[in-house]
Amino acid sequence: RAKELGGRRVEVFAAQMHADVVRRLELAADLQRALIDQQFAIEYQPVVDLATSRVTAVEALVRWWRGSVFVPPEQFLGPAEDTGLIVPLGEWILREACREVAAWRAESWDIGLSLNLSARQITAPRFVETVEEALAESGLPASALTLEVIEEMLVEDAEETIKRLSELRALGVRLAIDDFGTGYASLAFLRQLPVDMIKIDPSFVSGLGKDDTLTLLTRTIVRLGHDLGLIVVAEGIERPEQLELLKQMGCTRGQGFLVARPMAARGVDSLMRTSLTV
Ligand code: C2E
Ligand code: MG
Ligand code: MG
Ligand code: MG
């Protein structure tokens, strides 16, 4: 009897596993098709100077509508990385975003572009050349491009990753550490890479004014960043109180729903028009 029950449990488990595998294969196949059918889009979230509200840059964020269902990047980036699809997808985002930001700059709007990278993209053959091509093609100056990486990327293939990022840095491209403060490698990271910017993770910003430890940690990161001569960006600003505290701490740049949500290129167009006339 017990054996029978156990057997049934194994069967249920196997069915569950089978369903997971099927779902993952379907997702991988759909991702492949989505790239061919041009189902991906880019939204841009403004990064602003906290004192003046001037837009200093936009961060490109990939969007996927799988039919009529929106799939958040966190759900498809892993599978895209596993299947290698992140390489052509990332290249498309790179070229498209460089082109769009170069066009805004051509309207004499002095903004930069921040781009998220995944590990597999950086170590793919010809990554550095691809970035150089995207810059040359679009006319975007290297100094206007910031590449965002997270700490985990230096754990695997660390040597190759650092080498390539350093090559890009030598071209004049800026480097940022995204989600700063969440990985234990934070400080070691700063020593290994010629970094220009850190982006404080929203998990710190969310506790501002509510949690003493998180408030203290945020203050410490802002000070550390500035002492090291880095640009410090606070991410995930949602409440006015957070914005006030960040300004008091001397944090100069920020990003978050309170400041501006990610928006399609058309939204950035109108933002540009209002920015340029004030
Ligand atoms: P990230 O680079 O840290 O991007 C910030 C994320 O926080 C974005 O989510 C943005 O929409 C969201 N966000 C911005 N302000 C607020 C706020 O005030 N409150 C809250 N709750 N969220 C806010 P999104 O677009 O879902 O992207 C998630 C992550 O996926 C990104 O985190 C990044 O790691 C990755 N990602 C997005 N686009 C790309 C891409 O083109 N390539 C690669 N490799 N990764 C990407
Ligand atoms: Mg980012
Ligand atoms: Mg982040
Ligand atoms: Mg993130």
UniProtKB/TrEMBL annotation:
Residues of the EAL domain: 24-276
Superkingdom of the source species: Bacteria
Name listed for the protein in its UniProt record: Sensor domain-containing phosphodiesterase
